[in-house]
């Protein structure tokens, strides 16, 4: 697909010209890039626009803002934001985040919160606070940055991000999960040309470059009380919650198996030579789902490292990949199925689809092809 030069220029102009009263703009653009990269299977193309679940943006904001608000040093996210909560002067959801962080500090930290959220182990008290927070995040995202991003160029509101459908059916006792956020918090759309820029050039626009640096610069400038080291802010912004995910259960599962074979070479794994490999490397694809964690020989894993297995090689190894997927599905049950739907094939019905594994494998190959051919990452194969 051809990327319109004007669309790329428009993104640059938004970063430079749009208002910077709060960090919302950076958070929304960073979240959009992440969602396009990680959850493209939930994005629907429609005429000259693409439609994206708003809940996935909300979830990314949870991971971005938690370490910033939980920081030992107060990090303002709004111009001259005071450390003491003051009506109208703080970011809209700081109070809600403070309540959640305070309650969760009794049982753990950010890392523990992330793991418990993924494993659905949050207490009812924490879940209520989390639900109130995500509702406030929804209100903030849809009424603030979505409304104003691009106004400096078009002079009109909702010129790039447009609400397609609103949230629905939320009740107080519902467990907050990724699937709930996807299904119940509506959708928004962005123009197709804008989407292509973020899809194919997002790793340059966001990632570790422009957005994070400008966000850090904003926090430094927004603080009026004392100097803050920009490197500290960048370290907080760069925390990747996916790295907190506990993968020991998968490791233990495979250690308890007999006659284990390397997913890539087919050779028998003996003694202490078992490694758990990310099919799509974590360094390039932030995913610790069970389906992405398969057994390899340590020597093979050392050769693969952060390279991407080619679609042809994945196809060549499909039988053993699928065999392991069935074993993991039987062991981890609903957790495995939910992760497959969220990360690979959202339309799979495990109760009726006989060939769910083929759909999931095709999605895996498409992701590998994108990382190799579009992102330009190193490919890998034993063929």
Short summary:
The chain is built from 18 helices and eight strands. It has helices at 5-17, 24-38, 54-69, 94-104, 110-119, 124-143, 145-148, 151-154, 178-184, 192-205, 210-222, 230-237, 248-255, 298-304, 311-316, 318-332, 334-343, 356-373; strands spanning 44-46, 49-53, 162-165, 187-191, 274-278, 293-297, 308-309, 379-380.
Mind explaining what this structure looks like?
By secondary structure, the chain is α+β, with helices and mostly antiparallel strands. It has helices spanning 5-17, 24-38, 54-69, 94-104, 110-119, 124-143, 145-148, 151-154, 178-184, 192-205, 210-222, 230-237, 248-255, 298-304, 311-316, 318-332, 334-343, 356-373; strands at residues 44-46, 49-53, 162-165, 187-191, 274-278, 293-297, 308-309, 379-380. The protein folds into two domains: 5-243, no CATH class; 247-380, no CATH class. Helices cover 52% and strands 8% of the residues. It has a four-stranded antiparallel beta sheet. The longest helix has 20 residues, at 124-143. The protein is globular, with a radius of gyration of 22 Å. The mean pLDDT is 91.
